[in-house]
Amino acid sequence: MHRRTFLAAGSLGAAAALAGCGGIFGDADGNGSERSSEAAADGETATPDPAAFSNVSLGGPANASVGEAVSIPVSVTNTGEQSGTFEATLSIANGTGARNESLTIEGIEPGATRGTEVGPLNATAAGEYTLAVEGHGATRTLPVGPARLGAGESFALGDGLRVAVRGIAFEPALFYTTDGAASPSNGNASSNGTTDPNATAPRNATTVPVVTAGGSPGGNASSATATPNATIDGTATANGTGVGNGTAAPNATVAPNGSTAPIGPPTASGQTRLFDAGTDGVFAIVRLAVENAGDEPATFEADRLELRDGRVRSQLAEGAPLHTLAGVEGGPLTTVGLEPGGARTGWLLARLPRSGATNPVGITAQRDGGGPPDARWVLPPEGGTTRPLARFALESLSAPERAEIGRVPLGITVRNEGAAAGTFRGLLQRRSGGGAWRTIRVLVDGIGASATARFEPSLEREFLGSATYRVRPFGAERTVAFTPARQAFGEPYTTPDGIAITVGELVTARSATTRRNGQTTVTDSPEGRQFVFVRVETEVLADRATDTGYADAFAAVAGSESYGRTALTEGEGTIRSPVRGPRYADLGERGGGSFTAGWMVFSVPATLSTNELGVRWAERYDAGWAVAEWSVAPEANVPDPPTTAGSANGTAANATGENGG
Fold first, then answer.
1. 40 or 167: whose pLDDT is higher?
2. Dist CA 585 CA 601 (whole Å)
3. pLDDT at residue 639 above 70?
4. DSSP state of 551
5. pLDDT at 568
6. Residue 238 lies in a domain
7. How far from 61 is each of 65, 139, 241, 262, 445, CA to CA, in Å?
8. Where do the DSSP E strands lie in 172-261?
9. Cα separation of 267 and 265, whole Å?
10. Alpha carbons 13 and 117: distance in angstroms, whole number
11. CATH number where 121 lies
12. Contact (Cβ atoms closer than 8 angstroms) between residue 192 and residue 204
């Protein structure tokens, strides 16, 4: 596209003719007087030489800006012997073309220097202009820089489009959402995870829980003084330290202390990812307003704007579109078509080095897609020479080396090492074995300058084996080995299927009395053995039909030994002695809220006391083994089951297929 150029002349004025009368001039060496004498003797009249012009010069300012009115002084000397009119052509060129203007100065007396001003001139495009008076050797350059604008001032891009930079905000990291599959982690800042179905309760939840400091959604950051994490809206200022409008986001909750605490962006059915600017960078969110003041449809392209030391982004990590950013009000203004009279507000995203963000930020615009910028907005820090920014660091990630399934005591402390309050955004991720990372919690909270926030997310782990945890965007990792859930008799355990299992009374006896089909039978235990009677209750907590638990998933345990059920458990009928009640039966799939209870009978060595005995439930899922154990003193730690093909401590991969980034 040809660049619309040149200095538009507001006026090209010429000096008024000067009054005066001709005269006879003599030369400095006397030749003139001699010739006059001879001419007089011959009776002739001498004719003065005509006007001649030299010493043409061009003045004016050393430089100018687009849109600035300037005038160019032009002067010339009449070296002839008669008054005359100076006529010439003033050429204005900038490398892509030239514009000529007629120049006239009338009534210049012999020996006199006269001048005029050309202008006012107004440059419509930046660049270096060459001004020349043709044929007279007078030339000069006039550098024209971009128009200098402040926040809120608009600039005409051409084709009827006007754009205004309204403000800027800075964030170390941002959330965005995707609906694709998890991708393997490569350790860089853009790698993060996807929704983990193993991480939420109830199990059919479709979102990743959001955790604020304090441990649960709605928690509060200790010592944090930052504004709550409202969406980043149009109130962003040139200072960039205020990322919101000071009000709670629509989905905010009230913290235990009554203050409003952010719970982060909605994750809906997508997968929350983290877009991190890195330790030496920061994201700039530039607020824009664009309007079409022309008579024809026009399209605004974001590539007309640039940030000093930064690049306006057209997409996020891994090719994700800009509109997937969460918590940023409005839409990206990358390519916007506008009808006559139409207007849009929105934002552009760029990454800047921290050194560039702390200083005044320059944003430039180019009218025709080539050459130097034609406009430049300067957004200086407010109230100082440098702009303070938040900078977050992981102070601690604490986790035990071993923990029971269902219980993950995890603690995360984040410190704001920056000079300004800000919003910390992070992801708690987990992976098992050689799998990939999967996001299980979204972490977000405001943290004041030099303050810390403590996150204590309520986590559950449903399967045996080791799992590694990390907090993005940091690199620290902690690995936890998960052992069977252990509880006292009478305490419930909830399975991955959403079934609450409670193992209650445990009674030993050498014989059992049962009744079936109207007949009573007494059965003695084998020599050296005894019967163990265990009451089992199951309740379907899930809101869907679920298998209530299979009887063969239970075993009596003592130390490293396990003992299976006897035939007394099987079939219909009831147990009459030493306990009374129905046998526990596999009832198959039952609806939500269904309750089942009954007795199981095991055969164990007669030397074992009830204090030495426990009950283990173990079931294999696609994810691996879920195991729970009941005993009189669960803190005594019944040994883990052996890792064998039929044991409850198999090492299968985690059911969630943890292979997200």
1. 167
2. 12
3. no
4. G
5. 86
6. no
7. 11, 14, 38, 55, 53
8. 173-178, 210-211, 253-254, 260-261
9. 6
10. 6
11. 2.60.40.10
12. no
List Cβ neighbours of 258 (8 Å cut-off, separation of 6 or more): none
Per-residue pLDDT band for 547 (boundaries 50, 70, 90) equals: low
The two structure tokens encoding residue 62:
């050393």
Taking residue 276's Cβ as centre, other Cβ atoms within 10 Å add up to: 24
Q: Is 365 exposed, middle or buried (0-12, 13-18, 19+ CB in 10 A)?
A: buried
pLDDT at 8: 53
Residue 491 lies in a domain: yes
Looking at per-residue pLDDT, the higher value among 498 and 534 belongs to 534
Select from 89, 116, 145 the last residue of a domain: 145
Span 474-495, pLDDT tens digits: 989 999 999 999 999 999 999 8
Residues 653, 256: Cα–Cα separation, whole Å:
39
Angstrom distance (rounded) from CA 536 to CA 49: 130
Q: Residues 437-484: pLDDT tens digits?
A: 999 999 999 999 999 999 999 888 899 999 999 999 998 999 999 999
pLDDT of residue 371: 81
Distances (CA, A) of 631 to 219, 275, 647: 36, 48, 19
Question: Is the separation of the CB atoms in 580 and 505 below 8 Å?
Answer: no
Cα 567 to Cα 350, 386, 602, 618: the distances in Å are 72, 81, 9, 20
CATH number at residue 547: 2.60.40.1240
Q: Which domain holds residue 77?
A: 7-145
532 lies in some domain: yes
Length of the chain in terms of residues written: 661
For range 543-559, the mean pLDDT:
81
User: Are the CB atoms for 416 and 640 separated by under 8 Å?
Assistant: no
Confidence at 653, pLDDT banded by 50, 70, 90: very low
Q: pTM above the 0.85 mark?
A: no
As for how many domains the chain has, the answer is: 2
Provide the strand spans (E) within 161-318: 161-171, 173-178, 210-211, 253-254, 260-261, 271-276, 281-292, 298-301, 305-307, 311-312
Say whether pLDDT at 257 is over 70. Answer: no
**Which of 145, 172, 202 is the endpoint of a domain?**
145
Q: Which residues contact 156 (CB under 8 A, 6 or more apart)?
A: 162, 293
Q: What is the pLDDT at residue 317? A: 86
